[in-house]
Amino acid sequence: MVKYVFSFKEADYRNKKLFGGKGASLIQMTQLGLRVPPGFIITTEACKKFYEPRRSETAELEAILLKNPPPEVRDEVLKKLHGIIDSLDLPDEIWSQAVEYMKRLEAEAGRRFGDPENPLLVSVRSGAAVSMPGMMDTVLNLGLNDETVKGLAKQTGNEWFAYDAYRRFLQMFGKIVLGIDEKLFSTTWEEIKKKYGVKDDPDVPLEGLKEAVERFKEIIRKERGGFPQDPWEQLKLAIKAVFRSWMSPRAIFYRIIEKITPDIADCTAVNVVTMVFGNVGWDSGTGVVFSRDVATGENKLYGEFLPVAQGEDVVAGIRTPMDIEEFRKRFPHLYEELYQGVKLLEKVNKDVQDVEFTVERGKLFFLQARNAKMTALARVKTAVDMAKEGIITKEEALLYVSPDHVLQLLYPRIDPKAKAKPVAQGLPASPGAVSGQVVFHPDDAVRWAAQGKRVILVRVETKPDDVHGFYAAVGVLTSRGGMTSHAAVVARAIGKPAVVGAEAVEIDEEEKYFKVGGQLIREGDWITIDGHTGNIYIGVVPTIEAELIPELEELLKWADEYRRLGVRANADLPEDAAIARKFGAQGIGLLRIERMFRKPERLELLRSIILAETPEERRPYLEKLYKMLKADFKEVFKIMDGLPVVVRLIDPPLHEFLPKPEEVLEQVYQKKMRGEDASDVEKLYRRIKALQEANPMLGHRGVRVGVTHPDFYYYLNKAILEATAELKKEGYNPVVEIMIPQVSDVREIIYVKEKAILPAIRDVENSFGVKLDVKIGTMVETVRACLTIDEIAKHVDFISFGTNDLTQAVFSFSRDDAENKFIPQYLDLKILDANPFETIDVKGVGKLVDYAAATAKQVNPSVEVGVCGEHGGDPRSIHFFHKTKVDYVSASPFRVPLARLAAAQAAVLNRQNKHG
C-alpha cells in the first residue's frame, strides 16, 4: 500500500517535492530540536491521487487559463473547473491514513479530537514544493463546534479566548472550505465592533463574540445549508479544500507568472498541526521574524509580533503589530530563544529565514520556516556578509544572487534636484521609484496595463486574490499592513516598487479615490511612490538611475575571479561608454555609429552623401562629415582608454536616413500649388524612389554599401583612425577594432579591406607619423557567414556574432512583426519555449554559433570571438555561450553587472557539474 501520510519525526525534510516547503520546515525544525506543535503531513502524491479521476479534464481547463483568455471565457472555465473539483472526494486509502495519524496525534497531545471536555484542535495548512505566499489556503482552530468550544473554555480557563477562536474558525471555514463571500463575515464583524463601541478585535467583549458566532452560523446556514458540527467531517472537508486551492485562480496565475511548472511543484501537501493559541491572553501572540533585515540586509532580527492574535492576523495587516525590538524588551527570554532558533535555521539552510512563530502563555512555538523574500539590496548584502561570516562560500554567494537582483539594484530613485515634497510616508517595502496612474482594483490594473498605461495599484490592504494586479502594475501602495504583509512580501518577490502601511492615505476603493494631505486623488490621476524611502508624491516626479552599492561591487569582483567569459558593452554614444566603464565593462563590444548621424547638420550631410550619384559629388560631403564624427569617436576612445572598442561600420539600410517618398511628394505638390519651381524637389523624389528597396533589411546595407561605395567606408575609417592617432599623440592608449557588418562572403571582407580600410590606415599613419595597431574583424550575422567561417576566419582578427540579425535569418522572422503579431501566441501554445530574440535558440541559432566559433578557432587560433547581440545580456544565453568557444559577450550598459554575475554563475555551475 502506498504511504500518503507521515509524522514530522519520521519524514525526510530534504524531500520538498513530496512534503512541500511548509511540511519540510516543520520536519526540519522538529528534528533540530526546536519546539514545534506535533502534527503530520499528507503528501503531494495524495494531492495528485485526489485529482487523478478527472486529471485530464482539469489539465485541459488549466491549459486554457494559461493562455490568459478574456474575462468571460476565464469565468466560464473557472466555473467548470470548480464544478469538477467539487465532485471529487478523498480516496479511502488517504482518509484512512489521515484518521490513523489523527489517533496518534491524540495520544501525543493527550487530548481527543471532538471531545467536549478536553478537545484537540488542529490547523490544516497547504504547502507546495516552492513558496507560493498566500496563494493557497489554511484553516485554523479546526475541531471546534458548539460543544468543544465549551471544553476549550474549560481547558484554558478563558471563555473569551474560546469564543474568539470559534468565531475565527467559522469565518475561515465559511470562506475557504464552503466558498462563502468573506464580506458577509467581515461586514458582520465590523457591525458587532461598532455595536460594542470598540476599534480592535481584542476589545470585543464576550457577549459580542457569542453574538458573532451565532450570526456567522446563520450566514453559513443561509448560504450553504448549515455548519458541520462533526469535527471529522470538518477535517475531511478542509483537506479537500486545501487540495482544491491548488487549482484556485490566484494559485494558477501565480504559477504561470513565476514559471512554476510541474517538474518544480506538482500539487500541494496538507499539514495537519496541533493548534497552539496566540489569542489566549496578553502573554500570548503571533509573529513573523526574519533572521536579517529583508529590506537592508542588516544582520539583526527583523519582524513583528501581535499580542492576542492568531497567525493570519499579522500578514493580513488588519492590526498594527509591535516591532520585534519591542518584543525583545517585553519578553527578553523568549527573544533569546527565538534568536537562537532562527539563527540555527539560517546556518543550516544557508539562507536568510522567514519564520512564523506563536507564543502561548509564555511558551514559544516555531510554526514555519522558509527562505526569505528580500529586496535586491538585502539579497546582495546578505550574500557578501554570509560569505565573510563563513556561513556560505564565495561560490555559493555568487549563486545566491540572481541576475534579476542585480537589475533591481539599478532601479531608478527620486532625483534629489526635483525638490519634490511627499504628501505622506509609508513603509519602504520594495525598492524603486516609479510613477503611474492610480487604479483601485487588480482587474482594472490588468485592463489598463493591456492598453499600454503605467498604473499603480492602490489598495487598503492586498490579498492573495490581487496577485494578477501586482504583475500588471508598475508599483503598489497600501494604507494598511507592515513589512511582512502580503503586499510587501509579494512585491519584493516579483521586484515591483511598493509602499505599504501608509496610514495617512484614506482610501475608498468603492468610489475609487483616496484622500491624503488635504488632496483628493481619483482613479487615473498620477502619483509617484518611492520604495526606497516609503515616500508618496502627487504627480510625476523625476527619477535618476541608482549607483552600485559597495557589496555589489565586491560580489562582482568575486564574479570576475570565477568567470571565463569577458564582458563588454554595446554603445551608441559617449554617455553609454561612461556608464559601461562605471559598471565594469572590459571594453565596448559594439559601438553603433548610426546614432552619431542623428544630429540635424550631420543627418543633412549623410542624406547628401546617399543621394549623390558619383564619388566626386559625394566627396565634399564626406570630408565635412568625417570631421564631425571624429570628435565623437575620440570621446568614446578616451573614456574607454586602454580597453578595446569595436566600431561597427555603418549597418542599417540607407533608406532609414532619408525622408519618406510621400513626404517629398507632398512638398512637390505644395510648391506647384504655390506656382514655384519644384524641379529640385522632383529630382530628390526620383532619387529616393530609385533607392527604394522591396526588402531593405535584406538589401543595400552593411558591407554592401562599402563594396558599392568604398569611398564612404574610407572616410568612416578615416574618422575612426584620426581620432585614434590624435589620442595616441596626446598620451592615451586607444585600443580600436573595426568591424565589417552583414558579411556573407569572405571576398567582401578582402575587397573593403583593400579598397577602404587599409588605405585609410596608411594615410592616417603617414599624416600623423604614428603606427596604428588596429584589429579588423567582422560581424557574423548571416547564415552563410557561419557556414563559410573557415574561409572568413583566415582574413580577420576577430569575429562577433550579431545574434539579433542572425536569429531573424535563421527563423526567417522579421523581429518587429514577429514580436508584435505571433510570438506571444507561439509562447502560449508552447511552439516556442522562449522568445528567440531574448534568449538564444540553442537548437538552431545556438548550433550555428557553436559551430562557427569552434571552426574559427580551429583555422585561426588567435582569432577573438564575441557576441554583441541582445543575447549577450541574457543570463540563460550567457550560460550557453560559456559552453562554446566564445571569448566574450557584449551587453547594454545597464546589463553589464548582470552579465558579469551570470558569466560567473555559468562557470561555477559548470565546475560543480563536472565534479558531480
Automatic annotation (TrEMBL):
Enzyme Commission (EC) number: 2.7.9.1
InterPro entries found in the cross-reference section: ATP_grasp_subdomain_1, PEP-util_enz_mobile_dom, PEP_util_AS, PEP_util_C, Phosphohistidine_dom_sf, PPDK_AMP/ATP-bd, Pyruvate_phosphate_dikinase, Pyrv/PenolPyrv_kinase-like_dom
Residue ranges constituting the PEP-utilising enzyme mobile domain according to the UniProt record: 453-534
The PEP-utilising enzyme C-terminal domain, residue ranges: 552-907
Pyruvate phosphate dikinase AMP/ATP-binding domain: residues covered: 17-324
GO MF entries: ATP binding; kinase activity; metal ion binding; pyruvate, phosphate dikinase activity
Top-level class of the enzyme under EC nomenclature: transferase
Positions with a binding annotation for Mg(2+): 781, 805
Family: Belongs to the PEP-utilizing enzyme family.
Protein name per Swiss-Prot or TrEMBL: pyruvate, phosphate dikinase
Species of provenance: Pyrobaculum arsenaticum
Upper taxonomic lineage: Archaea, Thermoproteota, Thermoprotei, Thermoproteales, Thermoproteaceae
